[in-house]
TrEMBL record:
UniProt protein name: EAL domain protein
Superkingdom of source: Bacteria
Lineage: Bacteria, Pseudomonadati, Pseudomonadota, Gammaproteobacteria, Alteromonadales
UniProt source species: Paraglaciecola arctica BSs20135
Residue ranges of every copy of the EAL domain listed in the record: 24-277
Residues shown, of full length: 464 to 742 of 742
Length: 279
C-alpha cells in the first residue's frame, strides 16, 4: 500500500516537471523567432540622486510580450536564453534598441548615461565586444554615456577571464557596475581590485530594511567597504520613503526603484522627464 502511494506522488511530481520542461521548450522556440524578428523591446528605469532627486542615469531592461499579449518575466526568459545560447543574440538586439533610445534622449537634450545588462556568456563570447564597439561608432555615441551591468555572481564565476573581458570595455570608455551586490560569495576577496565604477546593492536587502535588522548591517558594511575602494553605490528596488531616507542617511548616493519610477517605454519616459522639473 505504501509503495502505491509513493508511486502516485512520484507520478504527479513528474507530470509537473514535464509541464515545466514543455513550457521551457515552447518558450525557447518562440524566443528564437522573436529575436529573429527583432520583436523584443526595452524599458528604461531612472536612477536618481537620493539627496537631490535629480536623474543621474537609466537602466535598460528587456521586455518580451507574446502574441497573446502576456509578458514573460525577464528572469524566466533570460535564464532560458542563457541555457540555450540565445543570450548573445538577445543582448545584441537589446543593446541596439538601447542605443536607439539613447539617441532619442540625446536629440532631446538629455545627456544622461544608460546602463545595459550583460551576461557572463556575452562577455566571454568572441563577437560581443566588437558588436558593442561597432555600435558606438555607427550610432555615434560617446562611451561615457554607457554603463555595463554584470551580476556579482557571474562576474565572480570565472573571475580572471571575466576581469580581462571587462577591462576591454573600460579601455573603450564604458563604465562598469556590479549588479545584485551582496548575493554572491567570493567578492570580499576581490573587492579591492575588481573592475568596476559602481556597485548596486541587491534589492533583497533594501526590501527587508523595515523588518530585518540584519539587512541594515549588510548595507552598512557594503557602503563602508564600497566607499573605501571608491565605488559609487546604487541601491536597487527602493519602494518606500522609509527605505529612501534610511539609505540616504546611511550615505548611499544613488537609488533606483518604484518609489521614483517604474521602467518605462521611451515615450512615457520622455513625458516623465518633461514633467519632472529636477530632471
Ligand atoms: P536587474 O538587472 O537587477 O534589474 C532590476 C530589476 O528590478 C528589474 O526587473 C526591475 O524592473 C526591478 N525593479 C526595479 N525597481 C524595483 C522595485 O522598486 N521593486 C521591485 N519589486 N522590483 C524593482 P526585471 O526587469 O524583471 O529584470 C529582472 C532581471 O533580468 C534583471 O535584474 C537582469 O538581471 C535581467 N535582465 C533584464 N533585462 C536584461 C537584458 O537585457 N539582458 C540581460 N542579460 N539580463 C537582463
Ligand atoms: Mg541590472
Ligand atoms: Mg540588480
Ligand atoms: Mg536583480
Amino acid at each position: 500500500k505504501q509503495a502505491s502511494i509513493n508511486n502516485i506522488n512520484y507520478l504527479q511530481h513528474s507530470q509537473q516537471e514535464t509541464d515545466l520542461i514543455d513550457r521551457r521548450y515552447r518558450l525557447m522556440d518562440e524566443l528564437r523567432n522573436t529575436i529573429r524578428g527583432g520583436k523584443l523591446s526595452v524599458m528604461l528605469q531612472p536612477k536618481v540622486c537620493l539627496s537631490t532627486g535629480k536623474v543621474v542615469g537609466f537602466e535598460s531592461l528587456a521586455r518580451w510580450q507574446r502574441d497573446d499579449g502576456c509578458f514573460v518575466p525577464p528572469d524566466e526568459f533570460i535564464a532560458i536564453a542563457e541555457a540555450s545560447g540565445l543570450i548573445i543574440k538577445l543582448d545584441c538586439l537589446i543593446f541596439e534598441k538601447t542605443m536607439e533610445a539613447l539617441k532619442t534622449l540625446i536629440s532631446l537634450g538629455y545627456r544622461i548615461p544608460v546602463a545595459f545588462n550583460a551576461s557572463s556568456f556575452d562577455l566571454l563570447h568572441p563577437d560581443y565586444f566588437n558588436f558593442v564597439a561597432n555600435c558606438l561608432v555607427s550610432f555615434d555615441i560617446a562611451p561615457e554615456l554607457l554603463d555595463l551591468e554584470v551580476t556579482e555572481t557571474q562576474s565572480m564565476s570565472d573571475y580572471e577571464r571575466i576581469q580581462k573581458c571587462l577591462q576591454r570595455f573600460v579601455a573603450l570608455g564604458i563604465k562598469i557596475s556590479i549588479d545584485d551586490f551582496g548575493t554572491g560569495y567570493s567578492s570580499l576577496a576581490h573587492i579591492s581590485n575588481i573592475t568596476a565604477n559602481s556597485i548596486k546593492i541587491d534589492r533583497s536587502f533594501v526590501s527587508k530594511l523595515e523588518t530585518d535588522k540584519n539587512s541594515e548591517h549588510v548595507i552598512n558594511m557594503i557602503l563602508k567597504l564600497g566607499k573605501q575602494f571608491d565605488f559609487s553605490i546604487v541601491a536597487e528596488g527602493i519602494e518606500t520613503e522609509y527605505q529612501k531616507q534610511w539609505l540616504s542617511n546611511a550615505g548611499c548616493d544613488i537609488g533606483q526603484g518604484y518609489l521614483f519610477a517604474r521602467p518605462m517605454g521611451i515615450h512615457d519616459l520622455i513625458e516623465w522627464l518633461a514633467a519632472d522639473k529636477r530632471r
